[in-house]
Amino acid sequence: MDDLYRENIIDHYRHPRNKGHLETPDIHYHDVNPFCGDEITIELKVVDGRVAEVAFDGKGCAISQASASMLTEEILGKTLDEVRALEKEDVLEMLGIPIGPVRMKCALLPLKVIKAGVWGMEDWPE
C-alpha cells in the first residue's frame, strides 16, 4: 500500500495541482522552512466564505510540494472555518506514508501557510 501512496506523492510533485498564481487573491501568505529551504506561497480567492479558487507556488522537496498540491485540492470549495479546522493528522493521512521527524516540517509547511493565511495574518514578501 505504501507504494501506491509513494506514487501519488511523486505524481503530485511532478504534476502539481493548482500551481501558479491568482490574479487578485483575497488571501496571500508565504513562508519558508529555514532548516531545508522549502518555500510555499498560497493564494486564495474567497466567495461567500468559501475557497472559490486556490493556487500555490514554491520550491522544495517532493514531500512539501506534494503536500501543497494535495492540500489545495482538499480545501477548494471548503468554508474558511473548515480550512481552519484542518489538522496535522489530515495532512499525514493525505500523504499516506510514515513521515519521520526530519521530514515532518516539510510535510506540514503548506498547512502552516494555509492556516496562517485564513487566520488573517499578512506576510507580503518582496
The first-level CATH class is given as: Alpha Beta
| Protein structure class | alpha+beta
Number of DSSP E strands = 3
CATH topology: Sufe protein. Chain: A
Helix content: 40-55%
List keywords for this structure.
126 residues; alpha+beta; Sufe protein. Chain: A; three-stranded antiparallel sheet; 3 strands; disordered C terminus
Can you walk me through this structure?
By secondary structure, this protein is an alpha+beta fold. It has a single domain, classed as Sufe protein. Chain: A (Alpha-Beta Complex). The chain contains 5 helices and 3 strands; from the N terminus they run αβββαααα. The protein has helices spanning 2-14, 62-75, 80-84, 88-95, 101-118, and strands at 27-32, 39-47, 50-59. A 3-stranded antiparallel sheet has the order 1-2-3, with helices on one face. Helix 1 (2-14) packs across helix 2 (62-75) and helix 2 (62-75) packs parallel to helix 5 (101-118). The model is unreliable at 122-126 (pLDDT under 50).
Q: How would you sum up this structure in a few lines?
A:
By secondary structure, the chain is an alpha+beta fold. Helices cover 46% and strands 20% of the residues.
Give the arrangement of secondary structure elements:
Blueprint: H1 2-14, E1 27-32, E2 39-47, E3 50-59, H2 62-75, H3 80-84, H4 88-95, H5 101-118
Antiparallel strand pairs: 1-2, 2-3
